[in-house]
């Protein structure tokens, strides 16, 4: 088992909309938790050296933005409150492709494969929520 996560998705939105979803606190608060039942609060100062805090019910993760290159790249540290290990690192790379935006999420620096697998189980439904949020309004209107 691996101690790194890589998840690739093609999202049905422009690169600017996807980047906004990763960098605007009010948009992050709509999807940035794998469990939609938990209250979600996000505070994000998106600039190199800026800090963020995400409260997912009783679970709190925080970190620092290490690289901010709109609208193509975002890199930040990731550490759960109460954990004593070194922070892990999340990198989000965006590129325009036919049908939307290719997003490659890499989460690295886990101390063991079990921790990496647990985080993958969190990222997958979270990214599903992001994809659902980005579905064009015209498509959702036709389905309703």
Automatic annotation (TrEMBL):
- In terms of superkingdom, the source organism counts as Bacteria
Read off the InterPro entries from this record: ASHA1/2-like_C, START-like_dom_sf
Segments forming domain Activator of Hsp90 ATPase homologue 1/2-like C-terminal: 13-134
Q: Which residues form the signal peptide?
A: none
Under the heading Gene3D superfamilies, the entry gives: 3.30.530.20
* Record family assignment: Belongs to the AHA1 family.
What is the name of this protein? SRPBCC domain-containing protein
Q: What is the native source organism of this protein?
A: Kribbella sp. HUAS MG21
Upper taxonomic lineage: Bacteria, Bacillati, Actinomycetota, Actinomycetes, Propionibacteriales
């Amino acid at each position: 088992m691996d101690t790194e996560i890589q998840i690739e998705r093609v999202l049905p939105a422009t690169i600017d909309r996807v980047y906004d979803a990763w960098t605007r606190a009010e948009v992050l608060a709509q999807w940035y938790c794998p469990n939609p039942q938990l209250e979600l609060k996000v505070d994000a100062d998106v600039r190199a050296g800026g800090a963020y805090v995400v409260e997912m019910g009783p679970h709190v993760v925080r970190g620092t933005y290490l690289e901010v290159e709109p609208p193509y790249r975002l890199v930040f540290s990731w550490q759960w409150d109460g954990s004593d290990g070194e922070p892990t690192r999340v990198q989000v790379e965006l590129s325009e492709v036919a049908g939307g935006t290719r997003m490659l999420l890499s989460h690295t620096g886990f101390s063991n494969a079990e921790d990496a697998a647990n985080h993958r189980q969190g990222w997958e439904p979270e990214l599903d929520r992001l994809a659902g949020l980005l579905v064009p309004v015209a498509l959702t209107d036709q389905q309703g």
